[in-house]
Specification:
There is one protein chain. α4 links the parallel β7 and β8. The chain is built from seven helices and 16 strands. The protein has a seven-stranded parallel sheet with strand order 5-4-3-6-7-8-14, sandwiched between helices. The protein starts with 5 loop residues before the first strand and ends with a helix. It has one domain: 3-Layer(aba) Sandwich (Rossmann fold), CATH 3.40.50.
């Protein structure tokens, strides 16, 4: 005797419905739970790898569509593309969003490009997420939002660069949307990130970090793997909350990790005018359970200086 197939529907979190046919006794469609990672930078790829190794389903939004072995699916495009979020909402249940596209490479002196990439695309993403009912979010910012004199949270935010000012505006919009929709939000202000590259070190944009002729800039720093762990801890943190908006510094917690005479050639931090950046890592330790590995940062800088001295 043939089974009778009847039309069924599955309600999505944003109010839309998926229609399908079943035998009338089968369970409703159970969409996989996914964490969405945005960004075309080493930090985003490291986070996707770390989450994948934990057995989590990860979807990546990469501007250039680079394949990621740890991603269940890679979407090529920017976070401003509404269709990407619509597809995600139909094919998955979104557990959380880890937004690092705000740290993707851009000309820090180009006002229009920085605003479009940072604030414009960020606002489009927030509008799409708000229409879906909002999701727990971890968002990347940068220490360039701080002023020279006041660099600890809660500090007076007085960016001295176009890049830092646009990140400050993005932070404000993230907090407004999260507050209005009661989404859990963790803002991570990342200090100078140390990514191993060709035996040396680079920043998140692939720019090499080299010794300077004389001491110019003193700042805190954090190894890439350490920063990745911070975002993984922050994702677990926001999932434990009903609603909250918290800011965390992600660095090594001390200027001693950066030897004198070493400075970046360029990057998000370049041209900021800041001469003294030091992360206050206490809140991240207390709330996220994340503490920096200061010895790892010192070792990376020491190895770089030894290598440069031998050339």
């Amino acid at each position: 005797m043939a089974e009778t197939m009847v039309k069924r529907q599955h309600l999505l979190g944003d109010g839309r419905r998926i229609l399908y046919y079943g035998d009338g006794t089968s369970a409703p469609v159970r969409l996989p739970l996914v964490t969405v990672v945005t960004g075309s930078n080493p930090l985003a790829r490291g986070i996707a790898r770390a989450l994948g190794q934990k057995g989590m389903v990860v979807a990546v939004i990469d501007r250039y569509g680079r394949q990621d072995p740890w991603a269940h699916r890679v979407f090529q495009g920017s976070v401003a593309v509404r269709e990407i979020w619509e597809v995600l909402a139909h094919q998955y249940r979104i557990r959380s969003v880890i937004h690092t596209a705000s740290l993707d490479r851009v000309d820090p002196a180009d006002l229009r490009a920085v605003f479009s990439r940072t604030v414009g695309e960020g606002m489009a993403m927030l509008n799409a997420l708000e229409e879906m009912g909002g999701v727990p979010m971890v968002a990347a910012s940068h220490a360039s939002v701080y002023s020279v004199e006041d660099y600890r949270e809660p500090a007076r935010l007085a960016p001295l660069s176009i890049y830092g000012e646009n990140l400050r505006q993005l932070e404000q919009q993230l907090r407004l949307f999260a507050g209005r929709g009661q989404w859990p939000l963790a803002l991570l202000r990342v200090f100078q990130t140390l990514a191993p590259q060709d035996g040396g070190l680079s920043d998140l944009w692939g720019a090499p970090l080299v010794p300077a002729a004389r001491p110019v800039l003193q700042q805190d720093s954090v190894p890439l793997d350490d920063a990745v762990n911070a975002f993984v801890c922050a994702e677990e943190y926001v999932m434990s909350l009903k609603t909250s908006s918290t800011v965390f510094d992600i660095g090594s917690g001390g200027l001693a990790a950066l030897p004198e005479g070493v400075m970046p050639v360029w990057g998000p931090h370049a041209g900021s005018g800041s001469r003294h950046w030091q992360a206050d890592t206490g809140p991240a330790g207390d709330k996220l359970g994340w503490w920096p590995n200061s010895e790892a940062a010192a070792t990376l800088w020491g190895n770089l200086k030894t290598r440069e001295d031998s050339l």
